[in-house]
Each structure stands twice: as structure tokens, then as C-alpha cells.
Amino acid sequence: MKLRQLHYIHEVAQRGLNVTAASEALFTSQPGVSKQIRMLEDELGVDIFVRNGKHLSEITPAGQRILDCTQRLLAEVENIKRVAEEFHDADRGDLAIATTHTQARYALPRVIQPFRQLYPRVSLHLHQGSPPQIARMAAEGQADFAIATEAMHHFETLVMLPCYHWNRSVLVRPDHPLAGKSRLTLQDIAAHPIITYTFGFTGRSKLDQAFAARGLKPDVVLTAVDADVIKTYVRLGLGVGIIASMAFDEKTDRDLVCLPADHLFEDSVTHIGFRRGLFLRGYMYDFLKLFAPHLTREVVDEISAIADAEQRQKRSEELMKSLPDAQ
């Protein structure tokens, strides 16, 4: 059994059993990948994949168990490399962050700039996607950290650390009937067409829950994953915008009226997550502390060491009680 063969079966599984796509990602030939997989199966005495002619059609039960072990083994191989790098060249490396547009656009700039000053030799890689996508990237080792508000708790293999509370604001044009309101109600907002985030992004579930609790059915006429897109259509007069408060910029959004809505909606909490068992390099601890100052090395290590997912969640909830609000 060779480590290269394990890389091959893992990549094939990750690529939806597409051997051609896997070979391209591995920078090798498709026949070479197929040959190595066959050799591994012959050595183990079991089939890892079910074949339909020349194509792989599914993973066998034995193959799934082997792939589970392979993923853990490859993660440990990566950890060995990280340990060596930490002792050999502590301030050089890579940091892959999977996150949503809102976090990348509004929350991360204040962190990445000082981080780059501290670690100019660390290459940063930002990957954007939906919360389930970015959580999966962290769980599968394609990203070091996942940062989001929604859907992160579905991945038990992730260590979830709460970062900060945030809430929402309502945006309208200066000539809108709500522009002069000193204190909005949900009924005020529901009386107008609404433009807000796509479901599953940026705390949208808390918004829906608030309206449902009052028996209101808001007229959501347009949704987007990007607050800047929401602002664009508010400017066009399509409706009332509801965005994360951090996404309002007093300088660039001077043509819009921003009305506080934190008294209408339950706070949301942004989390940062990473795969349990991941070896965190020194600069990764520093990134965590820059993003959320209460996430010291001691706190991160304490929560990471909790084996039971429910107990980790309980400890995280305790930590949430002292969280700051988004700046």
C-alpha cells in the first residue's frame, strides 16, 4: 500500500467518481490513476469502487470504510507537514479561509490587513460559497477555517468557535415612507416589498422567524447573497432592504437612509470552524485572535480538546454569553 494510492482513491471520491477530473487535479494521467486503484484493490483483496464498464458507478461498503480511514490518515499526513513547517519556518505558509461574501467583504478586511503585516510570508486564500459549502470545505480539509453564521453546526467534525454577535438594519431611499420613522415595527416593514438575503445566508433564518412569530407574511420580492446587490435594488426603488448592520457604510451609502432594526430581530452569531484534530500553526492562532480577541490559544485548545460534539457545543454556548457585538 502506497500513500500515493490513498491520495488517488480519496481524490476520485471527492470528484464524484470522475477519474478524469481526479487525474487532472492530481496532475497525472487517467490510466495511471485507474491502474494504481486496481493495484490497491488487488493488494487489499476487496473492491473499493463498483464499476460499470470502464466507469466507476459507486463506492462499495468496504470502500467507504477504507475511504473514511484514508481521509483521517491523509489529514494526519498533512499535520506532520505542518508540524515540520512550524519548527522549520514558523512565519511562512498558507492559510485557506472559506467564507461568505458578507464576511469576506465587511468583516475580514480589518483582520487581514494587520495579519499581513504580522506575517507577510503567509499566503492567504479566500474561498467564497454558501455556509454548507464552506463548512464542508473545512471538514474535508480544502480550507483551514470556515467563517459563517448559518448551517455550520451540521458538521460534527468541526470545532465551532463563536466570534461575535450582530444584527440587522433596514435601508430605504430618502423619499421612502419609512425614511422618517424613528422606531420601526415588523408591521411597518411587512407593509412594503422587501429585498434581503437568500435563505441560508447571513442570518436569514432569524429574519423569517421574527415575521412568522408575529403571524406576518412579508413580501420578499428579491433575494441575493451580496449586500451590495441588495443596496443596488433598494436604490432603484424596488423595496425595503434588510441587511447585516456591518454592511452599511456611512460614506459610500450616503444616498440611503439606515434605520436600526436590532430591536426587531434576534441577534445572530458568526462562528469560525476548523476540522477537529487539525494542527494549528502559530500564525493560525494569531489569525483567530485577530478575528475574535477572546479566542486565545488557551480557549481554542480547551474547546478543541473536548471529544464529545455536544459538550463542545455546550462550552461554545457558554462562551457566547460574553461575546462582543460586530464593529
Give a structural overview:
By secondary structure, this protein is of the alpha/beta class. Helices cover 43% and strands 20% of the residues. The protein contains 13 helices and 12 strands. The protein has helices spanning 3-14, 19-25, 30-44, 61-88, 101-107, 109-118, 131-139, 186-190, 204-213, 227-235, 282-291, 297-304, 309-320; strands at 49-52, 55-59, 93-99, 122-128, 145-148, 158-166, 168-172, 194-197, 220-224, 240-244, 257-260, 268-275. The strands form 3 sheets. It has a 5-stranded mixed β-sheet with strand order 4-3-5-12-6, with helices on both faces. Strands 9-8-10-7-11 form a 5-stranded mixed β-sheet, covered by helices on one side. A two-stranded antiparallel sheet has the order 1-2. Strand 8, helix 9 (204-213) and strand 9 form a beta-alpha-beta unit. The chain is globular. The N and C termini lie far apart (52 Å).
Describe the structure in brief:
This protein is an alpha/beta fold and 327 residues long.
Topology, please?
Layout: H1 3-14, H2 19-25, H3 30-44, E1 49-52, E2 55-59, H4 61-88, E3 93-99, H5 101-107, H6 109-118, E4 122-128, H7 131-139, E5 145-148, E6 158-166, E7 168-172, H8 186-190, E8 194-197, H9 204-213, E9 220-224, H10 227-235, E10 240-244, E11 257-260, E12 268-275, H11 282-291, H12 297-304, H13 309-320
Parallel strand pairs: 3-4, 3-5, 8-9, 8-10
Antiparallel strand pairs: 1-2, 5-12, 6-12, 7-10, 7-11
Helix pairs in contact: 1-2, 1-3, 1-4, 2-3, 6-11
